[in-house]
Each structure stands twice: as structure tokens, then as C-alpha cells.
Specification:
Strand content: 15-25%
Shape: globular
Order of helices and strands: EHEHEEEHEEHHHEHHEEHHHEEEEEH
Structural class: alpha+beta
Distance between the termini: 65 Å
CATH superfamily of the largest domain: Nonribosomal peptide synthetase, condensation domain
Number of domains: 2
CATH class of the largest domain: Alpha Beta
Number of helices: 12
Oligomer: single chain
Length: 478
């Protein structure tokens, strides 16, 4: 049993009936000649053998009485895999479009907070493959941690070596009584107040440093804007979700990166900008200034000072990157994105990797919950300029072929949540041979997610042709 960290808890406080703060993943498997195929029984067996490697999956959230303090994580005494692992066999074998539709339906429903905050669906595909559609609440893990933990169900060969045995038997917690939870919450709250002066001082210093950096960058013409332009996909969310799943060749993306001396993240941002420009252009809605993308940045890693709460799961910062919609030259757009991302990294570094964690740890839980529900319930996002237009995430994935219970992994598509005021989230993940693209959208704001997905593939193809020409020209000059 442990007290939830500030940022983890914030994902619960800010969740509303229309802004679901879970992450969704689609894992596509090829059972091949696997005896008996890949069934719900086989999936349950795999998870039973390996769940000790993913301890978050057996933890249930226990709210603090009256919202006095952050909730508790407890080892759920009522945990049962059957409550979380489900079959979509009633839908029959799904086409790719059917898989996208089904995933959108799963994403559009909130998780049951009376149980551990995750669920997994097994769906058959028309081509003989299967798909695992997984939904996990963001309070359980961030993208970096989630990828590492979910890798626990994979093997490097079809036969696998089997998971290591647990060091000790799992012991569920006894649910504490209401009086003991009240006393524990008050004690925790009082204890946390001792850290408030130092946290406030660090936060003020961080904000002041960020402001000075922004002013300096603005003088040089590189500062990201403080607000984003209005677009059709910015506004108040509904609870509905649509999903687009596509992929491009990873070697092609790496060739673009090398040809123009940028990064994979720059290429992702640039092709997103091109696809968005054409989507908006088809609706005569291209704004007169750059879009702004919020780009989550994991702050896990060696050499970094750990936060005060060593059990903190979500360790993430955000940089705001302007996405140019003109000129209509993909290479010029890529180079502008590269410069913008470099400047945004300076701003993100000035804000500090732990600032978001400390800010969420200071705010009263009841105030955060009430503010989020009031903002969402009144649809206030319709009445002010958006802070950002969308979220774009780039998650590193496995560089080798993987297997799950003997079935080959042929695709991994992650999707983050859409945020109030911003109806689109684009997440990409690199794996052995592909760059997989998952787009989550609110269909009442972005009316054709497949058009945006196709636009990203077309934008990669365009840059690939230009990269080939640039390499050939450089070779000729040499």
C-alpha cells in the first residue's frame, strides 16, 4: 500500500466524462501455425505467468476520504484477470477499418475506478491475425514506463525462455477502514506541507528562469508562442473517439533523417505538419500562423536526480513546438521544424524536469477535480484561444522482432489521450522495421481521422523522394 504521487493522481483529478485520461495500445499478432491459435485462454495464461513483472496491473486506486489527500494504491484483494481480459469474438473477424472502429469504441469508455485501471480485448482479424486492444489509465504509468512494463509479455523467440519466477508470493492488501484512511490522509497531508516552502521556491525559480529564457528566445525570433491559432479540431470535447492506425517504413524515415541532418522526431513533426496543413486546406481552414504541438518528453533516465517520491511513475515534461504550415515545401518545413524543436528544448530545459510534478503535488485534490469538471462541463474551451493545437508523441520501441506466446508481433500502435480543447493526439512508435502511427481523435472536432493518417504516409513518401534526390545530388557534387 502506498500513497499516490502528485502527477499520477493529477491524471485522475483532471479526468472528466469527456476527457478520458487513459492510454490505448493495439498489438497485432500473427499466430502462424501456432497449435490451437491465439485464444483468450492462451492470453490469460500468458498474463497469469507474467503479471508479477507488471505489478501495477494488480493495484487498485482507493480515494482519500473527502479528497483530503492523494489516493492510495493498494494490492487489490478482489483482483481477478477475468475482470480485465475480454474477448471481442462476438464482433466476428475484423477488417483493418473494423479494428480502428472497435478501438475507438473501447477508447471512448472510461475505466471502472472500483477495479485496477486497465482492460485488454482480444479481437480476431480477417487476415488470420489477432489484435490485443489494451487500455491503461495514465495514472498507472507514462509512455516510457508503460513500454518497458508491457514488454514483459514479449519473448525474443517463438519458443521463449519463460518468465523468471517471482521472488515471493503476491500478497494482497487488506482494505483499510474509513477512520484509518482518514487519519492516514491527514498525516500524509501534514507531512507534505513541510515540503511546500521548498517546492514553491523551486517552482518560482523555474518559472522565472523560463520567462527569462522565453524573452531571450523571443528577441532572437525563436520563442514558441504562448497561444495557438483556432482550428476546427480545437474546441470542447465530446466522449466519442475515433482511431487511425497506419505505418511507414522505418528505414525510409531514417534515410530522411540522415539526408537532412535532423532527428526522427523532427521528421515526425514535419510530416504531421504537412498532413495537418492539407487536412485544413481541404476545409478552407488554414490559420495564418503556425500550429503549436505539445510534445511530451520523458524525464526518466540515468544521471537524473530522482524526485522526492521514489515511487513516482509518471515522470514527464512537455515542450511546445511551433509547426509551420507554409511554405509548401516539405524540406523547408522540415528544417524549420528542426530549428523550432531545438529552441523548444531550450525552453523545456529551463522549466526543469520536475516542475510539473511539483506543481501537481502542491494543488489541493478537490480544487483540481472541481476545476476540471467545471471547465469541461461548461465547454469553456470554445471561448478562448487554444494553448496548443494537438499532442504529438514519439515513443522508442523494440528494434528487434518480438513474440507473444509463440505468435509473432507484427505491429504495435500506441495512442495517448486527447486533451480538453484539443481534439487530436498523434503517437508514433518505432519497432524492428516500421514506424507505427496511432491517431486518437474526437470525431466531433476532427471529422476524418483516416484522411489525416493517409496524409502522414504521403508526406513521408514526398520527403523520401526529396531525400533521395538530395543524396544523389551530393554524391554527384562529390
Amino acid at each position: 500500500m502506498q500513497r499516490m504521487a502528485g502527477m499520477d493522481a493529477a491524471f485522475l483529478y483532471f479526468e472528466t466524462p469527456t476527457m478520458h485520461l487513459h492510454v490505448v495500445g493495439v498489438l497485432v499478432l500473427d499466430p502462424g501455425d501456432l497449435p490451437g491459435g491465439f485464444t483468450i485462454e492462451r492470453l490469460t495464461e500468458v498474463l497469469t505467468e507474467r503479471i508479477h513483472l507488471i505489478p501495477q496491473l494488480r493495484r487498485r486506486m482507493l480515494p482519500s476520504p473527502g479528497g483530503i489527500d492523494h489516493p492510495l494504491w493498494i494490492e487489490d484483494p478482489n483482483f481477478a484477470l477475468d475482470d480485465h481480459v475480454r474477448s471481442a469474438s462476438s464482433r466476428g473477424p475484423l477488417s483493418w477499418a473494423g479494428l480502428e472502429t472497435f478501438t475507438g469504441e473501447v477508447a471512448g469508455r472510461p475505466l471502472d475506478r472500483a477495479k485496477p485501471l486497465w482492460e485488454m480485448w482480444l479481437a480476431d482479424l480477417e487476415d488470420g491475425g489477432v489484435a490485443l486492444v489494451t487500455k491503461l489509465h495514465h495514472s498507472l504509468m507514462d509512455g516510457g514506463t508503460g513500454g518497458d512494463l508491457m514488454a514483459s509479455i514479449f519473448d525474443l523467440t517463438p519458443d521463449g525462455d519463460g518468465p523468471p519466477r517471482p521472488d515471493e508470493a503476491w500478497t494482497p492488501d487488506t482494505v483499510p477502514s474509513l477512520p484509518s484512511r482518514f487519519v492516514g490522509s491527514v498525516t500524509s497531508l501534514v507531512s507534505r506541507q513541510r515540503a511546500v516552502p521548498g517546492a514553491l521556491a523551486r517552482t518560482v525559480t523555474s518559472i522565472s528562469g523560463t520567462a527569462r529564457t522565453w524573452a531571450s528566445e523571443r528577441r532572437s525570433g525563436n520563442a514558441p508562442p504562448l497561444t495557438a491559432p483556432a482550428t476546427p479540431f480545437n474546441g470542447a470535447l465530446t466522449s466519442r473517439r475515433s482511431v487511425g492506425l497506419t505505418r511507414v517504413d522505418l528505414d525510409t524515415v531514417l534515410a530522411i533523417r540522415r539526408a537532412f541532418a535532423t532527428t526522427v522526431n523532427d521528421v515526425v513533426l514535419a510530416v504531421s505538419a504537412t498532413a495537418l496543413m492539407r487536412y485544413l486546406g481541404a476545409r478552407d481552414a488554414v490559420p495564418h500562423r503556425d500550429l503549436v504541438a505539445a510534445v511530451p518528453v520523458s524525464v526518466h533516465g540515468p544521471g537524473r536526480v530522482a524526485p522526492a517520491d521514489e515511487d513516482l511513475v509518471n515522470q514527464v515534461s512537455v515542450m511546445m513546438v511551433p509547426l509551420p504550415l507554409g511554405p509548401d515545401d516539405p524540406v523547408a518545413r522540415l528544417m524549420t521544424v528542426h530549428a523550432n524543436a531545438t529552441s523548444s528544448k531550450v525552453m523545456q530545459s529551463a522549466f526543469g524536469p520536475d516542475s510539473l510534478q511539483e506543481l501537481t503535488g502542491l494543488a489541493p485534490p478537490t480544487l483540481m477535480t472541481a476545476t476540471a469538471r467545471l471547465y469541461s462541463g461548461l465547454g469553456l474551451a470554445r471561448y478562448h484561444p487554444p494553448v496548443m493545437n494537438l499532442v504529438i508523441s514519439n515513443v522508442p520501441g523494440p528494434p528487434v522482432d518480438l513474440y507473444c506466446a509463440g505468435a509473432k508481433v507484427t505491429g504495435i500502435f500506441p495512442m495517448g489521450p486527447v486533451m480538453e480543447g484539443s481534439g487530436v493526439n498523434i503517437t508514433v512508435l518505432s519497432e524492428a522495421r516500421h514506424l507505427n502511427i496511432g491517431i486518437m481523435a474526437c470525431p466531433d472536432l476532427l471529422d476524418d481521422v483516416d484522411e489525416l493518417a493517409r496524409g502522414m504516409v504521403e508526406a513521408v513518401d514526398e520527403l523520401a523522394g526529396l531525400a533521395h534526390g538530395a543524396v544523389g545530388e551530393a554524391a554527384g557534387e562529390g
